[in-house]
TrEMBL record:
The keyword Coiled coil applies. Its main location: membrane. It comes from Kalanchoe fedtschenkoi (Lavender scallops). Residues 863-950 form the Pep3/Vps18 RING C-terminal domain. It comes from the Eukaryota. This is Pep3/Vps18/deep orange domain-containing protein. It is a peripheral membrane protein. SUPFAM superfamilies: RING/U-box. It holds the Pfam family Pep3_Vps18. GO terms for biological process: endosome organization; intracellular protein transport; organelle fusion; root morphogenesis; vacuole organization; vesicle docking involved in exocytosis. InterPro entries: CHCR, Clathrin_H-chain/VPS_repeat, Pep3/Vps18_beta-prop, Pep3/Vps18_RING_C.
Amino acid sequence: MDSGSQIFKGDTLERYAAKGRGVITSMAAGNEVIVLGTSKGWIIRHDYMVGDSSEIDLSAGRPGEQAIHRVSVDPGGCHCIATVVGGGSSDTFYTHAKWNKPRILSKLRGLVVNSVAWNKQLITEASTKEVILGTDNGQLYEIAVDEKDKKEKYIKFLFELTELPEAFMGLQMETAIVENGTRYYVMAVTPTRLYSFTGIGSLETVFTNYLERAVHFMELPGDIPNSELHFFIKQRRAVHFAWLSGAGIYHGGLNFGAQRSSPNGDENFVENKALLDYSKLSDGADVIKPTSMAVSEFHFLLLIGNKVKVVNRISEQIIEELQFDQTSDSIGRGIIGLCSDAFAGYIYAYDQNTIFQVSVQEEGRDMWRVYLNMKDYAAALENCRDPFQRDQVHLAQAEAAFFSKEFDRAAFFYAKINYVLSFEEITLKFISINEQDALRTFLLQKIDNIAKDDKCQITMISTWATELYLDKINRLLLEDDTTTKDGDSEYQSVIRDFRAFLSDWKAVLDEATTMKLLESYGRVEELVYFAILKEQYEIVVHHYIQQGEAKKALEVLQKPSVSIELQYKFAPDLIMLDAYETVESWMTTKNLNPRKLIPAMMRYSNEPHAKNETHEVIKYLEFCVQHLHNEDSGVHNLLLSLYAKQEDDSSLLRFLQCKFGKGRVNGPEFFYDPKYALRLCLKEKRMRACVHIYSMMSMHEEAVALALQVDTELAKAEADKVEDDEDLRKKLWLMIAKHVVEHEKGTKRENIRKAIAFLKETDGLLKIEDILPFFPDFALIDDFKEAICSSLEDYNKQIEQLKEEMNDATHGADNIRNDISALAQRYAVVDRDEECGVCRRKILNIGDYRTRGYMSVGQMAPFYVFPCGHSFHAQCLIAHVTRCTTHAQAEHILDLQKQLTLMGDDTRLLSNGSTEEDTVTSLSSVDKIRSELDDAIASECPFCGDLMIREISLPFIEASEDQQATSWEINHQSISHRSFSLAI
């Protein structure tokens, strides 16, 4: 036991508690209320919660000396049942805490009630609900009382012992709500038997069922001064019981759910039963039996003589003895009995005058050691109160397992120890006996028990565990080489455990140290596994490449968490290992830059390949160009170079003819380097491709010259591509003609015929005289007779056609002269009421209309008349056109008007003091400017021409009028709404 103060201590609660009403004969307690029965028939109620007491005389009106035989109070301290015995008769009374007078239970007259069972779950302050009374003649009754009725609701007979009629000395009852009603659990004791009753329904129904079946009981014969039955209540539910019997203390746990599966619903709620023999309570040969008892959570308090011995319920050892400070007049009779307040958790003792209280302090403080001594480790741990106590329990478990050579189990418990044994001491235990497996188990368990913030220690222990795992794996390999083939072998099991360990502790294992360990032990697969866990994908991919497993390496590289740079790094090795899988992987990988893969693709392309083998690099480059629309020149150049090396140049020609940037704004038509392409095609002797490149580079002469070496028709096609430069096109065709004349095989006459036929293909671009110089000097003219005649006829037709065009031009010139003469005589009739289209004033009004740059005819203002009929004053037309036209045009008009004004003043000066020649020159300049001004303002009618059409798209309110338009807006807040009443 741990040293310290006593757990149980007895103190005097109240002296002379009977208040002169006789001596105490019986006592009961509940909810800090103590009810005493005295030898003179009085009930004295002490309420320590409110500090009050009351007295009720139950002997009033009864002859002779009356004494309280037994008093009982409910756990709440409100309801009380007491039996008065005297004068050869007995009566049972009920009283309530609020009553001043008792109520006699007349139906129980003549019966001595020894015990009462209260319905602790359902009882209330106002009603007792169901109460069971046990009498000294072996009968059970049910009673219920409501405080407001001032009398019992009913009294029912329930059961009677017939086989062995004995007095019921103790009763206890528990209830539980189940699906089909209320289940009752009733336990009753006589001096020699313990009876159990259970059932669903009402109490009457439960006990009626026992008329047809046997009552379950436990018999313990023997003499006992007073048989008692006690339930220990915890959280308003009975947990265990104790029966003070003649043979010993019969006790056990209560499980009020176990009997649900019982076929008969009979007593099955008692478990872990045990009997405490009285011989354990005395040192000598004489066995002294207790006269009373009380039950706490872990102990029995037994009244033996004037002492209370505290016995541990689990160890059955006496731990303490209590003595009470009795008065001199009470010592002779001693302590009468013990009682418990289940609701408040107090225990009381009493003699004939005094009430003693037994206080409890830390009752369970030593229970962990009690259970530990009994090797009930689970219960010991449950009762531990601090880590040091738990360490003691774990140490005992570990030492027991270690002693029995259960080293793995011992390691499990050693790992739970934190204080009483050091880490080094425990590890040395296993190292000294060479138990590597148990040491590994200890380390693994220790990691789980270490605080997560102690990362340094966790890392060290996990690294040690890693080495022990590797050592175990190697030892299993040395023992049996076939273990690797058996999936259920110990070797495979350890491998699985080791991988699980690596996965669980990857965050704390030092990466470099762990990888060195794995490498030093030759565990390549585990090294790869750990590298995957630590996301060291470079090591993983390198391993798979060395093993020739390109597909696995590519699967790793395709993970989203893997850096794209590893794709470029391992591309050369992967494409050489498995070109098909590599290219397929590239095609499915997003954000891959083909330019960075060019070294790998060139390495693959330099290797020899079978004739019919699919070129994987070409396939990938075509995918980039056609599907990904790649614009990188390096990619296009590489694809072009691979096409150029193929025997069939059809793919190369298709590639060159495809316009990859077609449709893009200001984009190129191709992305490869044409100079590089030309050099490459010349090197590989791909002449058709060279012709196409020359043509694309606008080097048409070189294209035709090279095409003539390949195919004359190709040269003709190239010559026809030049459309905008007639001289160049003719030059190209002459090159072709010269080649046809000089290099065609056949007789001279045949070559001449071919040359003549060639002229027809040029569609008149070449004549016979153009190709004659290409023929030898000794060629006969007769061979060209037909072609020359045809050419002369063409020239004759051209001359005739030219004559006709000249005649048509002469007639056209004559018509223009006539139109000009007629135009000089054209006039318009202006009505005298005709108005200006701008100012709406009459055109022909006489007044001062002198305007700048214009001289009035008579005294009328100058004006314009258009063929459509609209008329305008010159000044009004200028102002209207200037306002409606563009800013630049308006500036030009104003500038011309200003020049006319200035020149008009100069003309007047010249006419006064200059020669006639100077005046004529000045007037001609004025006419020229006036003509320009007329063209600017009067080229078309402003109401019928383009000027009016453009005004349709202009806004109604100009920018300069925004301020005026803003002033037109209506301010709703300034409008006051007024209502007017109309008189009817």
